[in-house]
Write a sequence for this structure.
């Protein structure tokens, strides 16, 4: 149930003419994307161990071949409630800064090449994902919101922010 | 080149160990030990450092170490009585050596310590005319220099007046009392490559029993003219007169390691000719070498690189003791200490060390440790699988698994043991710190170390040095008073700092206790108020005020000093310690002193845990924290007015916490069991849980690596079914419980 991606070292730091290769995935009716270079692997849902007094979008921790990492519920992070995780849900394992984290999403859709010039800046969003979106890409029939992963997981490891929320 | 760099690294590592040993021995001697083995060990340490430093071209280090070694040698030989020896000087010198090693390691220019050198020279009454010489010449020149010094000393001694054993560190009774035995003449005519074989004539002659040498003469007639002279060639011939009872074979055997058979001959002299021979051989000594010696001095001066000439070093004959009067009996020849012997001992010791220990990269041990950890997980997984087997199969398999688990545990213990080190490695740096600070601050301080052999994982050892240094600095600067103040307060002028390590509740607890003035609570509180850390109307208990010392940006020292006072000390310590999964707390008694307690996990790798369940969640509580377990139903519980539950346990009122509520466990809770656990401060607490699932070794996995700190838990582990369980940290859990819904200032809840 684990899919390893080959091009792990593909990063967004490409020349202007180059394309960004993006993994897209869905949460509800929304489509999100991150650079393929940040994705370490994609695996099926696996039960997590909840953490005491963690931020709502921190689903808990799981064991990935001996390494413990936290899983973040993207649905909760963008304010759409808690994912009722089943075997069909997917955890995207990503490398963010120097940490490894899991992102709980509904499904992974595609890997697409997008010219860097096609990435538009994120508009001022009124919804909860404010600050989590780095840019937008228009595909034929879809809008892909590129995630700022560091912002998504930011509150997780930060004790005070987490406590503030919990209290 | 890389191989050399690697060797050099090894040398520096060894230096650290040697310096530790050196300092420790000197300290013991300073404190009144009269054990000659301590002196010998100190000498060996500095000798080995010098040897290695020479091989790696650390000039300054060699120079200093040599003088140091020489003064220690006076102690070893008994020329300076242990009672009179300036051990505080020696300790300062050992600090200086340590500085030089550090400088050499970092390729920084070394700081010359002429003051110490001068003081060292005085030990054992140095001869003022000790020739200064260069220190970084090839070994041949060094040998030549030694020899030269020897010859000079010989010639300088008026033949009639004194029994001057002036050459280097071999005491030779020139005028020997009549001894039993017969006269033997040993003629040594070494091949010219003697120096290149790294053999000094001094060592060759030193292998003869010093007390039996009647005279040594050097024949320099073969030395070519200055222009043609290759200083790495040996052109000297020696005649050694012995009065000995040793059979010829034994004398020959003494040169086994240094000379080829054709390089020397042993001749038994006719007894009657005895006196004449001595005088005949002695006579030319005073003539020939005079000019040759001058030539050699000139060579040395010319060969020596100019700057090095300033360093009085390497070949300076170390302080020949002043001659005894002619009528006096020859100096006691009892201490058998020709320089060849310690060298041989060192070599033997080194060989022995090599045989019993191997240096291993810590990374490799870590990988091994990780692997063992995975085996432990797999094994507990197997145990769960086996449970579902039909009974007859289960019985057999269970037996095998039992064996496997025993072996795994043993394997794990051994790997752990490889990583464990006594805290001595850190503790032994502290006396120096205290000495230096005491001098800077003008305070008198006695440092007491206890529990140095407490073992702890190497990773922890490395992290200990900084916090401990800070804590000791803090105690010395803020805690202890000056001698005058202490006397005024009716205390002993000398303050005491105790550094104690012990194992407690599965942790290593290190405390730094001083008997100084304690924390100035009023001042601290005023400062905290002025910085806005404490509200103007906020009332704090005395203990709470003490904890403010860990808040950032606070320092009570009136003047900012070099040592501390910028307020970056204790909060940095706190952060360091907490990042290791440890905690620090302070207990202060005004006027009586202050005690900082630091508790750290013994290892970051494995622990013995009790797996417990609360609702749907499982946790691991370190078995070391558990004192006992009992049924909730049998325990009378009282409710205090503010909602806190307490129970009576062994006659004491013990607070009770419900784990599920504190940790926010999911599912329905049904508490049945109370676990009585110990906190770091020695208090007890009851923790109510649903069920005890089992007991097993768990591999500690960091939560910080990919997430962050989790309140109530020190780390996590992976259970047999592959799921993660949090490892509870009782103290952190209590803080979480105490915090409840109330958001406390982070500064105030650090030292539960």
């Amino acid at each position: 149930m684990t899919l390893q991606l080959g091009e792990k070292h593909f990063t967004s730091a490409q020349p202007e003419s180059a394309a960004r290769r993006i993994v897209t995935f869905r949460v509800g009716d929304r489509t999100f994307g991150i650079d393929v270079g940040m994705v370490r692997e994609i695996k099926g849902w696996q039960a997590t161990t909840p953490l005491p007094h963690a931020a709502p979008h921190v689903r808990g921790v799981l064991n990935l071949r001996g390494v413990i990492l936290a899983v973040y519920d993207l649905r909760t992070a963008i304010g759409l409630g808690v994912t009722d995780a089943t075997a069909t849900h997917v955890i995207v394992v990503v490398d963010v800064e120097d940490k490894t984290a899991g992102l709980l999403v509904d499904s992974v859709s595609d890997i697409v090449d997008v010219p860097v010039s096609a990435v538009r800046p994120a508009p001022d969003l009124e919804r909860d994902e404010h600050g989590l979106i780095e840019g937008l890409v228009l595909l034929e029939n879809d809008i892909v919101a590129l995630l700022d992963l560091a912002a998504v997981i930011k509150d997780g490891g930060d004790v005070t922010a987490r406590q503030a929320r919990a209290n | 080149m890389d191989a050399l760099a690697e060797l050099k690294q090894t040398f520096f590592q060894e230096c650290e160990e040697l310096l530790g040993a050196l300092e420790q021995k000197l300290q013991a001697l300073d404190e009144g030990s009269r054990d000659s083995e301590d002196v010998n060990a100190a000498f060996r340490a500095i000798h080995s450092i010098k040897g290695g430093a020479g091989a790696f071209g650390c000039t300054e280090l060699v120079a200093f170490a040599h003088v140091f070694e020489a003064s220690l040698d006076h102690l070893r030989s008994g020329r300076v009585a242990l009672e009179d020896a300036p051990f505080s000087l020696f300790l300062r010198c050992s600090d200086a050596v340590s500085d030089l090693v550090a400088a050499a390691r970092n390729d920084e220019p070394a700081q010359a310590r002429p003051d110490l050198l001068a003081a060292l020279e005085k030990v054992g009454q140095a001869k003022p005319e000790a020739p200064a010489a260069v220190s970084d010449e090839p070994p041949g020149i060094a040998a030549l220099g030694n020899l030269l010094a020897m010859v000079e000393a010989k010639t300088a001694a008026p033949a009639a007046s004194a029994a001057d054993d002036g050459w280097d560190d071999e005491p030779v009774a020139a005028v020997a009392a009549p001894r039993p035995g017969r006269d033997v003449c040993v003629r040594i005519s070494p091949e010219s490559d003697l120096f290149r074989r790294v053999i000094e004539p001094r060592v060759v002659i030193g292998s003869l029993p010093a007390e039996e040498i009647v005279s040594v003469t050097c024949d320099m007639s073969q030395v070519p003219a200055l222009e043609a002279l290759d200083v790495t060639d040996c052109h000297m011939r020696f005649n050694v007169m012995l009065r000995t009872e040793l059979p010829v074979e034994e004398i020959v055997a003494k040169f086994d390691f240094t000379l080829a058979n054709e390089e020397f001959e042993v001749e038994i002299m006719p007894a009657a000719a005895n006196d004449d021979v001595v005088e005949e051989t002695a006579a030319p000594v005073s003539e020939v070498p005079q000019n040759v010696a001058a030539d050699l001095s000139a060579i040395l001066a010319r060969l020596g690189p100019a700057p090095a000439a300033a360093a009085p070093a390497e070949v300076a004959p170390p302080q020949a003791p002043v001659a005894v009067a002619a009528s006096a009996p020859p100096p006691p020849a009892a201490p058998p200490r020709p320089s060849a012997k310690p060298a041989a001992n060192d070599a033997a010791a080194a060989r022995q060390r090599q045989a019993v220990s191997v240096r291993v990269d810590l990374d490799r041990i870590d990988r091994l440790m990780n692997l063992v950890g995975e085996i432990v997980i797999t094994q507990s997984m197997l145990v769960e699988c086996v449970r579902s087997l039909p009974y007859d199969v289960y019985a057999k398999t269970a037996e095998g698994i039992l064996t496997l688990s025993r072996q795994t545990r043993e394997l794990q213990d051994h790997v752990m043991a490889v990583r464990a080190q006594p805290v001595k490695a850190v503790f032994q740096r502290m006396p120096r710190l205290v000495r230096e600070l005491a001098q800077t601050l003008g305070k008198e301080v006695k440092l007491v170390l206890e529990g140095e052999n407490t073992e702890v994982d190497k990773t922890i050892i490395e992290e200990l040095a900084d916090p401990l240094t800070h804590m000791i600095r803090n105690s010395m600067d803020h805690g202890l008073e000056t001698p005058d103040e202490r006397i005024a307060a009716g205390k002993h002028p000398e303050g005491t700092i105790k550094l104690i390590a012990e194992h407690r509740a599965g942790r290593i607890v290190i405390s730094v206790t001083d008997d100084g003035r304690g924390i100035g609570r009023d001042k601290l509180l005023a400062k905290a108020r002025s910085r806005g850390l404490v509200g103007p109307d906020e009332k704090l208990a005395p203990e709470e005020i003490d904890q403010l010392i860990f808040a950032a940006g606070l320092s009570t020292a009136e003047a900012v000093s070099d040592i501390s006072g910028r307020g970056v000390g204790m909060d940095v310590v706190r952060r360091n310690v907490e990042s290791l999964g440890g905690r620090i707390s302070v207990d202060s008694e005004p006027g009586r002193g202050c005690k900082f307690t630091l508790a750290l996990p013994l290892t970051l790798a494995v622990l013995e845990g009790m797996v417990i369940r609360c609702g749907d969640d499982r946790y691991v509580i370190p078995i070391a924290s558990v004192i006992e377990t009992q049924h909730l139903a049998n325990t009378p519980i009282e409710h205090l007015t503010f909602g806190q539950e307490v129970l009576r346990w062994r006659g004491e009122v013990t607070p009770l916490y419900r784990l599920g509520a504190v940790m926010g466990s999911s599912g329905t809770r049904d508490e049945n069991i109370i676990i009585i656990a110990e906190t770091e401060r020695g208090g007890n607490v009851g923790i109510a849980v649903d069920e005890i699932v089992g007991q097993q070794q768990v591999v500690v996995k960091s939560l910080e690596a990919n997430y962050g700190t989790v309140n109530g838990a020190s780390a996590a582990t992976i259970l047999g079914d592959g799921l993660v369980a949090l490892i509870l940290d009782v103290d952190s859990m209590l803080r979480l419980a105490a915090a409840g819904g109330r958001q406390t200032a982070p500064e105030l809840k650090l030292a539960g």
